[in-house]
């Protein structure tokens, strides 16, 4: 692929998501801000999702997923890094801070704080204090309980946390969110800058990483008590969030137009037809790094049939993707499943081991 490629020359980009997923919004915002046309295939908010499991053979149960050609990417941080690597024209500049800069360190620290640091998990606890119809739906509760219990009959026996127990954590969650607002108000936003990275004339990756939890919670009616969270207490934060809302075209007052990405919506059968008929997004040689500890421990080789699943919840027990190992390095593991798709997962937060379902083969 040339050093600069127009969007029309890229393999098809298809986003599998449902609109109220806070993680999916991260990807939608990115595509919008960078002006990348894409296609969406909307999914139910609970399993089953036959568009993925039956049509594409993907067991991963989380949303969103993004395909670029016949390469399918899991986890929003990996998805964002892959979108950043697209060789687009200078009129569609990257959103990340320059390599080696203090700004890039801040961007990545905000990502770690929001996701690994527990800010999102804290925010999610507030759902149990709200009059949310989903929390009265036994199918939804059973689906989400799998994240905590690991699914199956064994997980269902006494391991699940009650709604009342979760609601009792609400005051602690509010305290942590208040601390986060105070952090932004008195540090990075304290000098009056418009965006998280000083000097930026539009939001970048650091803003996506910093805003997505707050944006989601602020959109949940009743989640944030007005006495603790309001524009008077956190004026810089409130104005920054509103600027972001305008920039991504989600403000009723000033919808964004310039650089707006074009999106079309298709059904699952059309999406799988497009993906399976496409070329690879990543066409270079792939290798398994023999210096990686996991490679040495399991004696992995290119072509070894392995299982890949996320480790931060019990959902991985029943939702492991299986395929021939194509690439493994410090950042990423890539497998090819029996549908001929290459599934990419980050090393961080995912586990890899030889599969009990098959024996090693060679590519």
TrEMBL record:
<feature type="domain" description="DUF7962">
    <location>
        <begin position="124"/>
        <end position="252"/>
    </location>
</feature>
<dbReference type="InterPro" id="IPR058268">
    <property type="entry name" value="DUF7962"/>
</dbReference>
<feature type="domain" description="GST N-terminal">
    <location>
        <begin position="15"/>
        <end position="86"/>
    </location>
</feature>
<dbReference type="InterPro" id="IPR036249">
    <property type="entry name" value="Thioredoxin-like_sf"/>
</dbReference>
<dbReference type="Pfam" id="PF25907">
    <property type="entry name" value="DUF7962"/>
</dbReference>
<protein>
    <recommendedName>
        <fullName>GST N-terminal domain-containing protein</fullName>
    </recommendedName>
</protein>
<dbReference type="InterPro" id="IPR036282">
    <property type="entry name" value="Glutathione-S-Trfase_C_sf"/>
</dbReference>
<dbReference type="Pfam" id="PF13417">
    <property type="entry name" value="GST_N_3"/>
</dbReference>
<dbReference type="InterPro" id="IPR004045">
    <property type="entry name" value="Glutathione_S-Trfase_N"/>
</dbReference>
């Amino acid at each position: 692929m040339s050093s600069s490629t127009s969007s029309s020359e890229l393999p098809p980009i298809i986003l599998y998501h449902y609109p109220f997923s806070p993680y999916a919004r991260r990807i939608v915002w990115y595509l919008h801000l960078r002006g990348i046309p894409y296609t969406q295939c909307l999914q139910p908010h609970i399993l089953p999702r036959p568009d993925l499991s039956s049509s594409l053979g993907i067991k991963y149960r989380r949303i969103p997923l993004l395909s670029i050609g016949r390469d399918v990417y899991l986890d929003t941080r990996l998805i964002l890094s892959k979108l950043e690597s697209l060789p687009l024209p200078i009129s569609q500049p990257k959103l990340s801070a320059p390599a080696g800069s203090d700004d890039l360190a801040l961007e990545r620290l905000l990502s770690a704080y929001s996701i690994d640091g527990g800010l999102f998990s804290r925010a999610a606890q507030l759902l149990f204090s709200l009059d949310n119809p989903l929390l009265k739906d036994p199918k939804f509760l059973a689906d989400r309980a799998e994240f905590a219990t690991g699914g199956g009959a064994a997980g269902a026996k006494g391991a699940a946390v009650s709604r009342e127990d979760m609601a009792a954590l609400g005051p602690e969650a509010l305290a942590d969110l208040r601390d986060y607002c105070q952090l932004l108000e008195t540090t990075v936003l304290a000098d009056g800058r418009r965006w998280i990275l000083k000097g930026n004339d539009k939001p970048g990756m650091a803003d996506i990483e910093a805003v997505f939890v707050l944006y989601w919670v602020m959109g949940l009616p009743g989640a944030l008590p007005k006495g603790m969270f309001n524009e008077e207490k956190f004026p810089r934060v409130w104005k920054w969030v509103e600027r972001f809302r305008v920039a991504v075209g989600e403000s009723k007052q000033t919808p964004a137009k310039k650089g707006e990405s074009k999106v079309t919506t298709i059904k699952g059968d059309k999406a799988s037809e497009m993906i399976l008929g496409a070329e690879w997004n990543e066409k270079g040689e792939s290798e398994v790094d023999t210096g990686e500890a996991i490679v040495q421990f399991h004696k992995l080789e290119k072509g070894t049939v392995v299982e890949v699943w996320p480790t931060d919840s019990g959902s991985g027990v029943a939702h492991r993707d299986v395929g021939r190992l194509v690439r493994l390095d410090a950042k990423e593991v890539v497998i090819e499943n029996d549908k001929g798709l290459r599934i990419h997962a980050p090393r961080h937060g995912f586990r890899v081991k030889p599969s009990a379902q098959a024996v090693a083969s060679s590519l």
